[in-house]
UniProtKB/TrEMBL annotation:
Its EC number is 3.2.1.55. It holds the Pfam family Alpha-L-AF_C. Residues 2-84 form the Alpha-L-arabinofuranosidase 1 catalytic domain. It catalyses: Hydrolysis of terminal non-reducing alpha-L-arabinofuranoside residues in alpha-L-arabinosides. Belongs to the glycosyl hydrolase 51 family. Residues 96-141 form the Alpha-L-arabinofuranosidase C-terminal domain. This is non-reducing end alpha-L-arabinofuranosidase. The chain crosses the membrane at residues 147-169. Keywords: Hydrolase, Membrane, Signal, Transmembrane, Transmembrane helix. GO terms for molecular function: alpha-L-arabinofuranosidase activity. Gene3D superfamilies: Glycosidases (3.20.20.80). It comes from Aegilops tauschii subsp. strangulata (Goatgrass).
């Protein structure tokens, strides 16, 4: 039963949304975990839960976690976030990004996917420090949505999947070869 071989873990994140003033013990606990993990598994990359995009972290980490949920307008404006980030120190793991508007329970929009695409282009332009990214939340049962927010990429029911425009955009983005010499970035103006 189970998986007979060890999983080849490359990364471990310590905490989730814990690095703010409301959780004063995270830093001390993080350092204990960091030291224990580093000693036992020196090759595993350790991800801090603290955002280092605007100022350097004050503790050791291989990567730091970055979450962003905004309106389409705000996410589009955040496309240059990592252009202003220090090139020294930990790399970035954008572990949660999506257009999210409170109270809007629609199934995505073209505007949302365009803003997410612009944000992803910003991540690719800064791939020297942005190590990886993932959309979140990804799945939701359309018949049992406890969270009233947008940003879900795939809605499912018992027998069907409902893909949003964001799925199509992210699939296209994954298929693009960054070395493709036919790719041209054009200046854009965002009008909402």
């Amino acid at each position: 039963m189970g998986h007979p071989e060890r999983f080849q873990l490359k990364y471990v994140a310590v905490g989730n949304e814990d690095c703010d003033n409301t959780k004063p013990f995270y830093q001390g606990h993080y350092l204990k975990f960091y030291n224990a993990i580093r000693e036992a598994y020196p090759d595993i990359q350790i991800i801090s839960n603290c955002d280092g995009s605007s100022e350097p972290l004050d503790h050791p980490a291989d990567l730091y976690d970055f979450h962003i949920y905004n309106s389409a307008d705000d996410l589009f404006l955040k496309k240059d976030t990592f252009s202003r980030t220090s090139r020294t120190g930990p790399k970035v793991f954008v572990s949660e990004y999506a257009v999210h508007v409170d109270g809007d329970t629609s199934k995505g929009s073209l505007q949302a996917s365009l803003a997410e695409a612009a944000f992803l282009i910003g991540l690719e332009v800064n791939s020297d420090i942005v190590h990886m990214a993932s959309y979140a939340p990804l799945f939701v049962n359309d018949n049992d949505r406890k969270l009233a927010l947008t940003g879900f990429c795939v809605f499912f029911r018992t027998s069907i999947l409902i893909m949003t425009v964001s799925v199509i955009m992210s699939e296209y983005n994954e298929q693009m070869d960054p070395r493709c010499d036919s790719l041209q970035l054009l200046a854009t103006v965002w009008n909402s």
